[in-house]
């Protein structure tokens, strides 16, 4: 590694990024010192083990990453808006679409969902925290520092440039000699370990910590979706762990797993990647299905139609998600037999998904639909996602895929699945649960403006790509000639991308505006909703439930409201809560430096950082920390203050 | 609110209609039997999918129009519904049938395009090796003993068998108007069967991202009459230079090149990864004894045991 | 902390039960991890390239020693947990100590074996087969190494703090981990070594 290669040079955009990174890194500590907020930051956020605060930090990080990934997307659309554009060169464009993919899937969609599940799942099952609160903090900091590690690649050393799927041999040292793909293997590894721990944590939480009487088949649908997602995480992520480890070994230790000589197999990487990668798609989609189920039931003022078949269809989807990975490379020349089998398993996913669509539609029937912002996203999801779904079935047909593979048709398809599926889902969930966490709603008028900008612009951006694909435009081309005729539709797509940007800016502006002007919400149940989280005061006390609720049916809170009975019977008792800890944060930093040194193959510093990680683990095992109790008097004081007005 | 809904519907519907009417899209403008099969398959599947969309959109519109709170009585309380066994069976069974139909179509058409086109089943195909290197395509004609770079000429009405492999990253060989694509990889050879029925120039490209100048990895596929083709081959043999090993090794270095033509192929000195040269030696321990140069080493291992 | 005395110490609190279930699930993830490594190894096991084949480098004696050491250690940790259940701290510590020593012995033999391979020219970089072999064995070996450190830390805590719900819980979870490594080794022994030597 030569020092002149350490910093990325030669691009005005990168110099601008460097300057802004330096400014931000000076401004944040300066601001914290000036406003005397160091203690607040450390005590309330960096050391917290409270699932709600961890959830909020996940969501803030995800929103930041949404903008980072969004800027990438805008640059890509701008570069391809006109033929032979010179805005970006090939290498820069390749880095941008690679990081766009990685960031949007792993550092935006996943953490946004994990953030929402952190906030909501313990509340929906009537628990006071997750099963392992400190592990939860470790998960967050591993994700956070993994994401930061990937992001600094932009200015230090160079970003990964072999696509988010990083196919070998393109991602090998020979064809991708910068440290970019080292960042890929290490940053994703660190974040991935965090995700695996989240999966274990939530599976135990949901299995063991439900309120008395809440049988599995009486859980809210969002909690169900998280249960299934956790299982998928546990089965899928270890495969990624192995794949990334082998990638690191191949690139940095000279092994031959995916090499072109000495018996290596390049397609082995593709197989491992997609054995994880396809279930990953369902990790980000199923929770969104859960969110829509909650929102549609709430705003149709009706219980979810076909609850059981909703659960079974999610289970079916999760099983099938592990049996379809080959459809990502029908074109690698396996026989008709293999391609046919995977075509059929892939198309079969459409059946349970279709069941869900019809169940949502029939939840609306005989309902009383109010068009709030979260409901608008849920309603826009149905028609747009259906387009994503049916084009997915088209792509599933192996023979036809020979004409769609690697084209803009594919790009359009997965944006039609992931944006209405995941992105609309998390935005809807964000609007829906926002008042629970912060005690006021987001402004409906601004929210709706953002919604219309986002949905309409989404179609303008991505529908043209279907047509471009059928006209032979392949994905990941940084330039094309005017004679291909791809220009006008790409320009249209760029117009849509600008509209999407305006929509997302409005969304964030709404957060600012509502924080300042929106009236505070005092009931704790602003939407007249159905599940347990709405039975608590907003904002929430640290311990969530002063008395553990007793549940005997689905939508227990709804029926309790109808029949005027209370879910909370009994006396206050001291509540045991875990203590805050700085350890997870320190561990995250140690992982960050370990990863960074590994990226540059600086072995001795890496070993030192590795020993620090082991040291934090050793400290943890010798530490004796039994948490603390909240006294009955303090609970009474808190409850009276929060529920004073209406109880 | 209404104009927004209208705009929203338009943003979905207008491009859909445009797509339906425009027949000049490459994929829907086939010039050979394989591409025709695929075009028909795609159009068939689009019809099915439009049918599904119509049902979903009709139900959706109905629900939204009829059950919006603003149109309902203030005191209306939605009923509690568990679901309906028969309705749920309906929307499970119908998709199952659709999937079965599509599966049959998929299997049949996949068999069709993976083999020599039916109309030419009795003819011996013309074999052309197409190999990729960063960022170009090499076409070797073993029967004719000629080689080209970044363009390929083929005769019409004759089955062609492209054999694909790569001297670097995985690429995907694609001539949309003649056949679907397939990967070219470094350790095995894959095959595309096709035939062209109209003379003309068709764009071919690599569709699988392969690094910096991937976007420039295009080649012209020129379909000629049999007579023109024979004349071209003869002409190349007489006028083009031979391809030396040194020159080939230079050619496969990363670069963007124009067209080149040679009167010999690289297959002799740099054989494709098929047969004994394939990249994987699955469980073949006698691989060592086959290779004279490693015999000594092999003996040594024997001693160790 | 509520302690339920009708249950074994390691299950006696709510937190302990959660930790044991969590660890079982973690072991589920570990099974997927090792399955993937096995799958990679099986895919590449014939790709010797110019390097030696499995039957050329594998030797039965060290592998048998490793197997016996690890199987015995699995047995002794079982005895340790039994001793813990009947409340005998001293016996429990003795058996855990023996377990860790056996583990150390296993690791020693494995390292010697690796050194021998490398001396014979069979390194991780030689062929895809050897990359797969070293990674699979190395991952297992790294787990054993981590287990030695972890087990040592637990032993120290039991010595200092006695058999509390907390230390008992840690010891029990550690025993699950150790049994798991043993099971993985049985698969390595059968499907890597025995199959490779045939």
CATH fold call of the largest domain in chain B: Immunoglobulin-like
Helical content of chain A, roughly? Answer: 55-70%
Give the termini distance of chain A in whole angstroms: 67 Å
Q: List unreliable stretches of 5+ residues of chain A.
A: none
Domain unit count of chain B: 2
For the terminal residues of chain B, how far apart are their CA atoms?
A: 83 Å
- Briefly note the structural class of the backbone of chain A: mainly alpha
Largest interface between protein chains, with number of residues from each side: A-B, 98 and 96 residues
Q: What is the rounded Rg of chain B?
A: 28 Å
Domain Cytochrome oxidase subunit I profile (chain A): 36-552
Family (chain A): Belongs to the heme-copper respiratory oxidase family.
EC number (chain A): 1.10.3.-
Transmembrane segments (chain A): 12-35, 56-76, 96-123, 135-156, 183-204, 224-249, 311-330, 342-364, 376-398, 410-434, 446-469, 489-512, 585-614
Describe, in plain words, how this protein is organized in 3D.
The complex is a heterotrimer of chains A (647), B (305) and C (198). By secondary structure, chain A is mostly helical. Chain A has helices at 12-34, 38-46, 51-81, 90-124, 133-152, 180-208, 221-252, 266-300, 307-320, 336-348, 350-364, 373-396, 398-404, 408-438, 444-470, 487-517, 556-563, 583-599, 603-622, 632-643; strands spanning 575-577, 628-630. A two-stranded antiparallel sheet of chain A has the order 1-2. Chain A is globular. Chain B is built from 7 helices and 11 strands. Chain B is an alpha+beta fold and 305 residues long. In chain C, 80% of the residues lie in helices and 0% in strands. Chain C has helices at 14-44, 54-57, 60-85, 89-119, 128-161, 165-197. The longest helix of chain C is centred in the last third of the chain and has 34 residues, at 128-161. The radius of gyration of chain C is 19 Å and the shape is elongated. Chains A and B meet through helix 4, helix 8, helix 9, helix 10 and helix 11 of A and helix 1, helix 2, helix 3, strand 7 and strand 9 of B.
Short description:
By secondary structure, chain B is an alpha+beta fold.
């Amino acid at each position: 590694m030569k020092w002149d290669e350490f910093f990325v040079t030669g691009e005005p955009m990168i110099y601008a990024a460097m300057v802004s990174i330096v400014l931000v890194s000076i401004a944040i500590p300066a601001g914290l010192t000036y406003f005397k907020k160091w203690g607040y930051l450390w005590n309330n956020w960096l050391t917290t083990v409270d699932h709600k605060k961890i959830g909020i930090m996940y969501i803030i990080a995800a929103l930041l990453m949404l903008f980072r990934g969004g800027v990438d997307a805008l640059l890509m659309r701008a570069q391809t808006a006109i033929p032979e554009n010179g805005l970006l060169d090939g290498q820069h464009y390749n880095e941008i679409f690679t990081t766009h993919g990685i960031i949007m899937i792993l550092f935006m969609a996943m953490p946004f969902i994990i953030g929402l599940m952190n906030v909501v799942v313990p509340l929906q099952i009537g628990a006071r925290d997750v099963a392992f609160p400190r592990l939860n903090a470790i998960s967050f900091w591993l994700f956070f520092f993994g994401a930061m590690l990937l992001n600094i690649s932009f200015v230090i050393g160079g970003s990964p440039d072999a696509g988010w799927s990083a196919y070998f041999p393109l991602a090998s040292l020979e064809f991708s000699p910068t440290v970019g793909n080292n960042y890929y293997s290490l940053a994703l590894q660190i974040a991935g370990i965090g995700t695996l721990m989240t999966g274990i944590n939530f599976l135990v939480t949901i299995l063991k910590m439900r309120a008395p009487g809440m049988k599995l088949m009486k859980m809210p649908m969002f909690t169900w979706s998280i249960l299934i997602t956790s299982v998928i995480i546990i089965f899928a992520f270890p495969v990624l762990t192995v794949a990334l480890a082998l990638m690191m070994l191949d690139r940095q230790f000279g092994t031959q797993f995916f090499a072109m000589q000495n018996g290596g197999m390049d397609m082995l990487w593709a197989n491992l990647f997609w054995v994880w990668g396809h279930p990953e798609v369902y990790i980000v989609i199923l929770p969104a299905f859960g969110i829509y189920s909650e929102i549609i039931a709430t705003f149709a003022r009706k219980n979810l139609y076909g609850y059981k078949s909703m659960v079974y269809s999610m289970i079916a989807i999760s099983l099938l998600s592990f049996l379809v990975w080959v459809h990502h490379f029908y074109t690698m020349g396996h026989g008709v037999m293999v391609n046919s089998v995977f075509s059929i398993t892939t198309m079969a996913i459409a059946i349970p998904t279709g069941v869900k669509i019809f169940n949502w539609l029939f939840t609306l029937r005989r309902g009383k639909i109010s068009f709030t912002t979260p409901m608008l996203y849920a309603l826009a999801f149905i028609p747009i996602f259906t387009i994503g779904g049916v084009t997915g079935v088209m792509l599933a047909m192996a023979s036809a895929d020979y004409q769609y593979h690697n084209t803009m048709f594919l790009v359009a398809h997965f944006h039609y699945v992931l944006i209405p599926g995941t992105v609309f889902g998390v935005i809807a969930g964000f609007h829906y649960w926002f008042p629970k966490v912060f005690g006021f709603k987001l402004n409906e008028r601004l929210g709706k403006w953002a919604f219309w900008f986002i949905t309409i612009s989404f179609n303008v951006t991505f529908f043209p790509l279907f047509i471009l694909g059928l006209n032979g435009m392949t994905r990941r081309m940084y330039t094309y000639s005017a004679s291909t005729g791809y220009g006008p539709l790409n320009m249209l797509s760029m117009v849509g991308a600008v509209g999407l940007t305006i929509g997302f800016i409005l969304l964030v502006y709404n957060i600012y505006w509502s924080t300042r002007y929106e009236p505070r919400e005092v009931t704790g149940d602003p939407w007249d909703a159905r599940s347990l989280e709405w039975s608590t005061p907003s904002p929430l006390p640290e311990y969530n439930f002063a008395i553990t609720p007793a549940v005997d049916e689905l939508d227990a809170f709804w029926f309790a409201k109808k029949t005027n009975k209370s879910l909370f019977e009994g006396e206050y008792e001291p509540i045991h809560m875990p203590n805050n800890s700085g350890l997870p944060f320190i561990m995250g930093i140690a992982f960050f430096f370990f990863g960074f040194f590994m990226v540059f193959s600086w072995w001795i510093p890496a070993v030192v950082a590795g020993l620090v990680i082991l040291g934090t683990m050793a400290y943890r095992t010798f530490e004796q920390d039994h948490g603390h109790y909240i006294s009955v008097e303090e609970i009474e004081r808190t409850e009276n203050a929060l529920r004073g007005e209406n109880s | 609110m209404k104009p927004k809904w209208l705009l929203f519907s338009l943003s979905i519907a207008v491009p859909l209609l445009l797509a339906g009417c425009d027949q000049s899209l490459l994929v829907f403008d086939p010039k050979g039997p394989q591409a025709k099969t695929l075009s028909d398959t795609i159009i068939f599947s689009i019809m099915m999918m439009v049918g599904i969309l119509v049902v979903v959109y009709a139900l959706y519109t109905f629900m939204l129009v009829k059950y919006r709170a603003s149109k309902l009585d203030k005191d209306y309380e939605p009923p509690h519904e568990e679901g309906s066994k028969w309705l749920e069976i309906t929307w499970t069974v119908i998709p199952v049938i659709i999937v079965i139909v599509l599966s049959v179509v998929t299997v049949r058409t996949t068999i069709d395009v993976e083999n020599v086109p039916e109309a030419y089943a009795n003819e011996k195909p013309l074999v052309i090796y197409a190999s990729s290197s960063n960022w170009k395509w090499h076409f070797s004609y073993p029967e004719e003993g000629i080689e080209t770079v970044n363009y390929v000429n083929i005769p019409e009405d004759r089955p062609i068998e492209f054999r694909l492999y790569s001297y670097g990253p995985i690429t995907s060989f694609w001539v949309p108007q003649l056949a679907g694509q397939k990967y070219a990889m470094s350790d095995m050879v894959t095959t595309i069967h096709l035939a062209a029925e109209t003379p003309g120039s068709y764009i071919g490209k690599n569709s699988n991202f392969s690094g910096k100048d991937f976007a420039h990895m295009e080649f012209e596929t020129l379909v000629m009459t049999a007579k023109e083709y024979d004349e071209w081959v003869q002409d190349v043999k007489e006028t083009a230079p031979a391809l030396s090993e040194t020159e080939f090794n230079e050619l496969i270095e990363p670069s963007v090149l124009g067209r080149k033509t040679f009167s010999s192929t690289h297959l002799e000195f740099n054989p494709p990864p098929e047969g004994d040269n394939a990249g994987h030696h699955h469980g073949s321990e006698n691989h060592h004894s086959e290779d004279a140069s490693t015999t000594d080493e092999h003996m040594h291992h024997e001693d160790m045991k | 902390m509520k302690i339920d005395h009708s249950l074994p110490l390691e299950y006696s609190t709510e937190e302990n039960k959660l930790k044991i279930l969590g660890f079982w699930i973690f072991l589920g993830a570990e099974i997927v991890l090792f399955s993937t490594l096995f799958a990679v190894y099986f895919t590449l096991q014939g790709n010797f390239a110019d390097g030696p084949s499995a039957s050329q480098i594998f030797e039965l004696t060290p592998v048998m020693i490793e197997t016996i050491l690890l199987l015995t250690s699995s047995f002794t940790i079982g005895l340790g947990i039994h001793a813990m259940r009947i409340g005998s701290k001293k016996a429990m510590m003795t058996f855990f100590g023996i377990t860790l020593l056996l583990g150390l012995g296993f690791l020693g033999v494995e390292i010697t074996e690796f050194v021998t391979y490398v001396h014979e020219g069979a390194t991780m970089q030689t062929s895809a087969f050897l990359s797969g072999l070293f990674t699979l064995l190395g991952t297992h070996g790294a787990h054993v190494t981590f287990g030695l450190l972890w087990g040592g830390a637990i032993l120290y805590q039991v010595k200092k703090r006695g058999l509390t719900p907390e230390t008992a819980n840690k010891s029990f979870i550690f025993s699950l981990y150790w049994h798991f490594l043993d099971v993985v080794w049985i698969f390595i022994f059968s499907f890597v070594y025995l199959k490779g030597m045939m």
